Amino acid sequence: MTSQVSSPAEQADEAVVGEQRKPAGTKDVRRLDRVIIRFAGDSGDGMQLTGDRFTSETASFGNDLSTLPNFPAEIRAPAGTLPGVSSFQLHFADHDILTPGDAPNVLVAMNPAALKANIGDLPRGAEIIVNTDEFTKRAMQKVGYDSSPLEDGSLDGYSLHPVPLTTLTVEALKEFDLTRKEAERSKNMFALGLLSWMYHRPTEGTEKFLTSKFAKKPEIAAANIAAFRAGWNFGETTEDFAVSYEIAPATTAFPVGTYRNISGNLALSYGLVAASRQADLPLYLGSYPITPASDILHELSKHKNFGVRTFQAEDEIAGIGAALGAAFGGSLAVTTTSGPGVALKSESIGLAVSLELPLLVIDIQRGGPSTGLPTKTEQADLLQAMFGRNGEAPVPIVAPCTPADCFDAALEAARIALTYRTPVMLLSDGYLANGSEPWRIPELDELPDLTVQFAQGPNHTLEDGSEVFWPYKRDPQTLARPWAIPGTPGLEHRIGGIEKEDGTGNISYAPANHDFMVRTRQAKIDGIEVPDLVVDDPHEAKTLVLGWGSTYGPITAAVRRLRNAGESIAQAHLRHLNPFPRNLGVVLGSYEKVVIPEMNLGQLATLVRAKYLVDAHSYNQVNGMPFKAEQLAKALKEAIDG
User: Fold this and answer.
1) Residue 26 — pLDDT band, cuts 50, 70, 90?
2) How far apart are CA 369 and CA 381, in angstroms?
3) Which of 585, 303, 551 is nearest to 427 (CA)?
């Protein structure tokens, strides 16, 4: 559950009101402009919930923020092992930020595995809060520690805070009728309370959340709230934490409006609902659960009041088949999946191309090939989206660039699908899907008008003067065919995957007709109206960095660093990958060097080189994690100098 706040000026006022517990006067309070915190523990320690709650309170306080959840693919990896470590990183600031941060300033490590898996990412001087209760000999040996890192001097370069989180939590909950194991489960709330004290986070939202989450188990709700308060009080009273920190609301980072924290998958879900309302069409989702796309199915299933129908199919092929049937029936039809599911859906996507029906195919990309890395991110489905079907089967491709942008990308994909009667691929990825940031809730009059006109009667006159309905008679501007709803009198027509005769839609094997239909379908996609590419180039640079999708944040952060250091570099980011913006060729030809960072082995670079004969330089990463800004800044500096 995410929190909603109002305008930046009002956010600052709300922050003061919401912050009821203040550190004692003897404590030092330091003002920071930003901080990066990582919660890490066993996959059963509740690190994702802890991070989500801290994020929600940070959003309600009015900070700008960006998050990076990172968790194992296994539902329950072996306890205390390195593969079982789950983490949640949050970067929040009093100014505009773009990424979850390169390196944590604070690590909360719930066990030895969490410490060992994350210590390499910490800069010297970072704060480490460790749960000393878990540093048993057996637990340390399980991850390869021959001696305790808390005692052997290996952490001397950091600010170490040893805290017996488990013991303190059990002690705080001794008045409750809980077993020790049940009480220990609340240690993540103790840690959340401690961090909330350290960074002056509001507390009321978390307490309300816990009351609601465990409404049917009031004893558990009360225990979690007690652990949360105990952690806050521990920070206030212990001598080990002599300093707390303030990060003011980002009052200048956002335009005035109503904001909420939102993840990419949630933004996509809301965008789909908004698109259906703007189109005045029922929304139909035919889907099969797959990480990291399943959250869209879960969310849309909650919105029957908006006319949303969700169908959890038995497999990927059934999901898209049902969605395509819904499109034939007049719905705004959607199917959601990840890379392996796109492979299974490819024949049905080709059928949608042949039928020329609007269909949204949402691919939340993850590491591959095959089932690959289910919980890690990648951008390696671009060529599959572009060419991954038999025959000439062109499909428009849209890619959001931030979690909040997923809302707008869903509306844009729906516009193209409805206007041009075509399936559309929307390429998000795991980083955007699970990450979150503040989102300004748009006013209704800011949303596009997506209404469509269904065919109502005959549209063609034969030589004998009789009027008939031709299902493939096209709009001269868009080349879109009419959308005829089944059951409309006089609009009976044939559908299927075999080639159709131009105009009539009858089966045709004629060579000339097939050539014409193939070229017409391609011309329809090529003719889609998309905005020109906007280039950010304040100093007439010679080097352009071109990106697409979720690389926007790291690229922009890297460009800022270079410009602050006096370097001249231009930046452009693609939302539309098929067709490309019409000015892309001119833009690329305006620079001596073009660098394309991608979380693949150079798929956009391959397309750019082939289409525009530009010697674009690839900078690639396929480790399942997003780029770091410093890493990109270094690579771009080398490109400028080279």
Assistant:
1) low
2) 10
3) 551
For residue 639, what are the CA distances in angstroms to 38, 460, 555, 619? 32, 58, 14, 10
Q: What is the pLDDT of residues 399-425, one digit of tens each?
A: 999 999 999 999 999 999 999 999 999
Does the structure show a pLDDT above 50 at 20? no
Distance, CA of 38 to CA of 47 (rounded, Å): 9
| Rounded-to-integer distance, Cα 637 and Cα 642, Å | 8
Evaluate whether 109 touches 162 at the Cβ level (below 8 Å): no
Q: What band does 76 get if pLDDT is binned at 50, 70 and 90? A: confident
Whole-prediction pTM: 0.94
**Tokens at 520, concatenated:** 């017409």
Task: Give the H or E element holding residue 535.
Answer: strand 535-536
Q: Burial-class residue 642 by CB neighbours within 10 Å (0-12, 13-18, 19+).
A: exposed
Tokens 């096209």: give the residue.
474
Enter the DSSP assignment of 622. -
Strands 64-70 and 283-287: unpaired
Give the span between the Cα atoms of 429 and 265, in whole angstroms.
9
Do 39 and 108 meet the contact criterion of CB atoms below 8 Å apart? Answer: yes
Strand order in the sheet with 359-365: 308-312, 283-287, 332-337, 359-365, 423-429, 397-398, 576-578
The alpha carbons of the chain give a radius of gyration, in whole angstroms, of 27
- Quote the longest CA-to-CA distance of the chain: 97
Cβ neighbours for 257, distance < 8 A, ≥ 6 positions apart: 7, 440, 441
Question: Across the beta sheet with 617-620, what order do the strands follow?
Answer: 535-536, 570-574, 543-548, 593-598, 617-620
Around Cβ 381, how many Cβ atoms within 10 Å? 25
Q: Which residues contact 517 (CB under 8 A, 6 or more apart)?
A: 499, 500, 502
Angle at 191 between CA 54 and CA 239, to 5 degrees: 120
For 256-290, the pLDDT digits (tens) are: 999 999 999 999 999 999 999 999 999 999 999 99
pLDDT greater than 50 at residue 80: yes
Q: In the beta sheet, which residues pair with residue 460?
A: 468
In tens, the pLDDT along 530-542 reads 999 999 999 999 9
Mean pLDDT confidence for 59-87 = 92
Strands (E), 330-452: 332-337, 359-365, 397-398, 423-429, 436-440
Q: Is 422 left (phi over 0), alpha (psi -120 to 50) or beta?
A: beta
